[in-house]
């Protein structure tokens, strides 16, 4: 690790100001950034911690039934909150280990948009709205490819607003070493409409599997998935899984998500 | 009834109090006044010519004290191979020099070519980044087969990538070939024993302190064998006289073999401490551990098993390529040969065995002994090919093994691979296994699994290993450049408590608990009054350390011999005290008595008298009560066992879960059954890790892909079932006074083939035509095997 300045603002506007300086970097729970810095692969001159800003923390149910989660809310807090719908609860409960869940934040995960992270699948599947200090961005517009999002420089995820699906499920097939998603499928069912988002699998990052959605919109049953297949050519290939295997897992995990949605 | 102390008691480990409370004292915990920090500049390419190493910028960085490059060590020795292996044609193995720092060429990713010494670690790291090395990258030699056939050499000066081409036993070659040619049935299997990264919890750490007043050195280092490290540094690398170098290895957080060896970092900190006359310390980062700790396994093998029409084994023949990486680590040449080939008869009365091993240099980290060292590779090949033969012939794999076992009345038994097994009862062990694992109930359990959509498989295995390394006279004839005895000093203090200085080193084995049990039992004293001292060459006798499940069989035997000398001397003192002669004195349960009388003196009184010899017949009896014994075994010990594993396979994903694992072992006599059970558990976890999870991967350019825990899968508690462990079959070793055999490696040796046999069985139950899958059996590999 190289030396850096550390700032811990108490308000969003102070955080935005602090991020205006050259080579300043926002720090959520640090579960990706800190290991990267320890390896000397990142060297921000200033770290602006977002974990001491009260308005970025906590979970509340809105009048329209949606759930707002502060960008600085930890995975552990999401996992243990009674208003969280089942798929999202399962997801938060199974990120990393207890230490990761007690530090890592939903805002950090979404802003980083690791192609194998879990939260992007939930946000995209549920059709969440990413609320920043400047604007609201729909999940469909937010994720723009591996490690790439619609966030501008100095833009901070203040909160994430999740519609409350009538049923949901998250099925993660873990990469055995990292326990990130080798393939993770998040399914959100809103009665007459189902959204399926897949993480871990594609070189383009998290994506919606539109064929599965169309089939499920006709008939919400795991039988609807059986005859589908997904092209493997854009899938990730690494020492843990081939493109073909990942494509196969997308189907298996989707089927299981349908069967287990609650 | 279980005893509550002494030999056979399940005494809780006394060392755990400090480990569990975080008060252990590891090398990195040692802090010396005025210390400096070393950081290494390491190669980012697998193969390259070092054109220049410009250190001028680094030297000007804040806090830098001095910088070393390969140039600084050109005139000193290299880190040697501890074992000379000759090729089949009689030629000695190729031994390219392994320098302290790379010079001329870098040969693997992580190969150190320079080191910075600075006031802080941060400053040293900053300065190391300013070393400007012009290294011309060359194509890497990674794949073993291409290494042997190609003309791109890891070491240009030897003109080959083959270290040796070894045959065992060369005189048996023709007979084995003939047996296979004329056999009723031959089963052939090609398999890979996957390369592993040792991953000791504590990274390597070395701290050197030089005292100019006396021109002597102290090296604190993470070593499994401080005397061996000292010997290598003194005799081969730096030439520091042994009497001027103290090596201390305090608490060590796991080794698994990787801390047997001397590494260049130890020599570097010693040389640096002398140059700057200040202490120099280095602790590996986890990345450095991945790149530079000696890796394990990495064999590619073709094995053939020949059977007659009655299913009797006629011959095993193997051809193996074994990777040694870029340099010969200290025991890299013996691991794939003597520790592997000699075990290729397994537990079987097979008349012909022939083993050919070609050991290969590649541009990867050195490979050396890792928990089991050669014996897991032997067991894996044998037990996989036997299972395949059973499948081909439609035989029950357990019965096929039993039919070919060496029977209990055939011992001592000289195998076709040249070892003399002293004792054993493989059928009795298999009986215990069948009982605990409820093999008869398997069909019912399979049905249950199938009802929930899972495939269930049963894997059986039997294994044998050679432990208690080693009889020095035998290994000397086989090329060993060291002896492998061990030593203990028993110091009975004046107040009756006892310090035992031992050559073995404890880094997880529980010696501090088990060794006092022996001493206490033999002397009839409270084990809590016995203290074990280890890991410091200035305190302990010249022993050879801990590896190869040797500590109890060899060092434990030295303790017994030392205690016998104490009793013998004690009798002389007691005889003097009771006004008789020592031939009339008996010793039992801590009391010396005069035979046929009621005269007694206690052990404590004798100890006190030894140190207050006011009325000693000083010409007949020396004062003091301290004895040293060296023990060199007559033979290896031969622990053996039978394991069973049941797995479930998810047919949709290929995910394997271990539903049960049963281990029945014969370890001979047992000093502490709780520690034995713990050792078996740890070994099983490591073996299951190899079978399902762990795999070290280099790409074709020699980059280490599995270089962190993001990509290298360690076994975790949730991956393992609750083990059933039985060690009630005990055929005591006939070659050591304790009748013990060793248990440290068994689990890691016996479990990999058991797991693979189980997974193959599961897949075949669903009519998949699968005969083998290479480890690790990741979900993808299992899925691919079902869908090829």
Mind explaining what this structure looks like?
The complex is a heterodimer of chains A (262) and B (788). Chain A is an alpha+beta fold and 262 residues long. Chain A folds into 3 domains: 5-49, 2-Layer Sandwich (Uridine Diphospho-n-acetylenolpyruvylglucosamine Reductase, domain 2); 56-162, Uridine Diphospho-n-acetylenolpyruvylglucosamine Reductase, domain 3 (2-Layer Sandwich), CATH 3.30.465; 167-260, CO dehydrogenase flavoprotein, C-terminal domain (Enolase-like, domain 1, 2-Layer Sandwich). In chain A, 32% of the residues lie in helices and 21% in strands. Chain A has helices at 12-19, 33-38, 75-80, 86-93, 98-103, 106-112, 119-126, 139-142, 210-218, 223-226, 243-260, and strands at residues 5-7, 24-27, 46-49, 59-61, 67-70, 129-132, 136-138, 157-162, 167-174, 181-189, 194-199, 207-208. A 5-stranded antiparallel beta sheet of chain A has the order 4-5-8-6-7. In chain A, strands 9-10-11-12 form a 4-stranded antiparallel beta sheet, with helices on both faces. In chain A, strands 1-3-2 form a 3-stranded parallel beta sheet, with helices on one face. Chain A starts with a strand and ends with a helix. Chain B has 788 residues and is of the alpha+beta class. Chain B folds into 3 domains: 27-138 and 201-254 and 259-292, Aldehyde Oxidoreductase, domain 3 (Alpha-Beta Complex), CATH 3.90.1170; 372-467 and 638-787, 2-Layer Sandwich (Aldehyde Oxidoreductase, domain 4), CATH 3.30.365.10; 485-631, Aldehyde Oxidoreductase, domain 4. In chain B, helix 10 runs parallel beside helix 19 (746-765) and helix 16 (551-577) crosses helix 17. Chain B is globular, with a radius of gyration of 27 Å. The model of chain B has no long low-confidence stretch (mean pLDDT 97). Classes of the chains: A alpha+beta (262), B alpha+beta (788). Chain A binds chain B through residues 2-3, 39-40, 173, 176-178, 238-242, 245, 248-249, 252, and chain B through 122, 125-126, 129, 287, 652-653, 655, 693, 695, 697, 705-706, 709-714, 778-780, 783-784.
